[in-house]
Each structure stands twice: as C-alpha cells, then as structure tokens.
Design goal:
This protein is mainly alpha-helical. It is built from five helices and two strands; from the N terminus they run ββααααα.
Length: 189
C-alpha cells in the first residue's frame, strides 16, 4: 500500500493514504497529492482500461445475450472514445501539468500561474467530458445492473465499469478541488 505524508503536531509522517479525508488531503503538499493521484488513479486506470476493453470484446462476441446488445455496443463505442481521450489526458497531466504544478509549489509566481492557467482549464474541460461519459455509461448499463440472464462476463464488465467510475469521480474531485484550485490564484506579494 502506498504511503503518504500526513501532519502530526506540525511534522509530516507517513500514513495509510486510504484513511485520509479530503479535508486532510487539502492540508497535504501538492507533491503528496500528485504522487497519490498518479499511483492510485492514473496507474489503476492504465490497468482497468485494457481489462474492461477485453471484457467488452468478449461480451460483444456473446450471441446469447440479445437483451442488452444495442446498449452494450453503444457503451463499447463510448468506452473506446473515453479510453483514447484518457490516454492523452493522463499523458498531459504527467508530463506537463503536474511538473508545472510541482515547480509552482516551490516558486509560485504570476508568470508560472499564467503558464499553468490554460493547462488547468484544459484538464478541467476533460473532467467535464468525463462526467458526461459517466452519465452516458450509466444509462447504457442501466446503472450497472445486468439482466437476470446475464453471463458472468457481463456481470464482471458491469462491476469493473462501476469501479472505474467510482475511482474516476474521486480522481476528478481530488484534482479539481484539491490540486488545481490551489493554483488558480496567486498572492501578489
């Protein structure tokens, strides 16, 4: 389990990260947040997306489940687009946005903020697109409820999608409300 830094009487020490509330995360340095986001969300997405893609392909080859076929096809197309966009989103965060955030944490200047503003705006727009994806995938999976006659593969697909969505929602909340929010304004001093 990944460890993070947590305050204790003014000093930071390692702790189990899953036990931290969002308020406690708000007190953490940006470097701890970024490390957690990459280790817990980005790395997990890089595993989940190919696994879910395989589950979709297997289900699309299943001719016995005609009840959900149109919805599964629509969900697969939606998921494929999401997977493609997420690949570039993660790459942009890890190679551009997060390194600038970490540099700014040490040297928060108006010049750095100016460089970061369009990147944060783009990341937040991607997050809005992700929220649209979430609503659509819930629709096509009937809120992740397979039919009674569903194959084990379809049940696993829906469970996997639900887990991805839950992670994605927390991922977006942490980035937008804890990380990016810190860098939207800079003190003139």
């Amino acid at each position: 389990m990944t460890q993070v830094i947590q305050p204790n009487n003014g000093r930071w020490h390692t702790t189990n990260m899953e036990k931290l509330s969002l308020d406690q995360w708000n007190e953490a340095p940006t470097s701890a947040l970024v490390t957690y986001i990459i280790d817990h969300f980005h790395d997990r997405l890089k595993i989940q997306i190919p696994q879910i893609n395989l589950l979709f392909k297997k289900e699309l080859g299943n001719k016995s489940n005609k009840e959900y076929t149109a919805d599964i096809i629509a969900a697969f197309h939606l998921f494929s687009e999401f997977a493609h966009q997420m690949h570039f989103h993660l790459l942009q965060e890890e190679t551009v946005a997060f390194p600038l955030l970490l540099a700014m944490e040490k040297n928060k200047t108006p010049e750095n903020l100016k460089k970061l503003t369009p990147i944060i705006t783009a990341m937040e727009q991607d997050h809005q697109d992700d929220l649209t994806f979430i609503a659509s995938i819930q629709k096509y999976t009937h809120n992740f409820r397979p039919p009674l006659s569903a194959s084990e593969n379809l049940k696993l697909l829906f469970t996997s999608l639900k887990e991805l969505i839950q992670d994605l929602q927390l991922h977006i909340e942490m980035e937008n409300n804890l990380v990016f929010k810190r860098f939207k304004t800079v003190d003139p001093a």
